[in-house]
Amino acid sequence: MKKINCSKCKEQDRCCDFGAWVDLEEAKKILSLGLTGDFYHFQKDDNFPSGYKAGTSYEDNRCSFLTPEGLCSIHKIDYKFKPFDCKEFPYERGKLSPLVGLLCSVVRAKKITKKRKPL
Prior knowledge:
The protein is α+β, with helices and mostly antiparallel strands and 119 residues long. The protein is built from 5 helices and 5 strands; from the N terminus they run βαββααββαα. It has one domain. A 3-stranded antiparallel beta sheet has the order 1-3-2. It has a two-stranded antiparallel ribbon with strand order 4-5. It is globular and about 40 Å long. The protein starts with 20 loop residues before the first strand and ends with a helix.
């Protein structure tokens, strides 16, 4: 699988359009930073280390931790607090995320280029 170079992306906050799922323990650490932002949709999920997850956006809104400039307020404070799923995107558990075609402009650009036929 070819690696996606996110540093070449012209819309680096696009992947934050729907927020992310965060492990409950990660969410607690992030909340302790006192940042503007909140967690929504708390639910049980055995795929997360604590057994629970929380979303960083309300319904289909952007991540609540994005600054008006489109930067991650968590990342700005300390990268180590950035949620695991955010650090890993556009991958999920070593594979491209199912949302990559929608959220990743680098992948969309490659798909458009492939669809165009030479004259």
